[in-house]
Amino acid sequence: SSNNSIFHNNFIDNFNYNAHDNRDSNSWDDGYPSGGNYWHDYPGMDADGDGIGEEPYDISGGAGAQDRYPIVQMWNITAPPDPIPAIDSDGDGVPDAWDDEPDTPAGYWTDSRGRGRRWGDMNGDGKLTSADALMILQAAVGKIEL
What we know:
Number of helices: 2
Radius of gyration: 18 Å
Number of strands: 6
């Protein structure tokens, strides 16, 4: 996709690469001092202690994109949403929240590992962010499997 602003995300242990950009119109940071994203494999340093790496983070793909102001500590991740109730009203061994029964809490689904998640929250951090959208896009083109 094009013309996206992608910043203030945590990119951690993603398959093959953290992000891929073949367009030249995406922005991967919010400038200084707001910063860009946290990249778990960022090789640079924060010599001046401002929380932003001294060297840009290169984004894979044909666009030559960079996060010019990568942050060196993870963004604060809030607690996940309330746990999914483990009620099994039909006695089939699968909690109602994962059975897609009438009493399933709105907005929940089950990922491939059987974990209940809210719709769109692909990385399980309890929030819907641009990182979730990127994961969906990567899955749509076959780069990752959700």
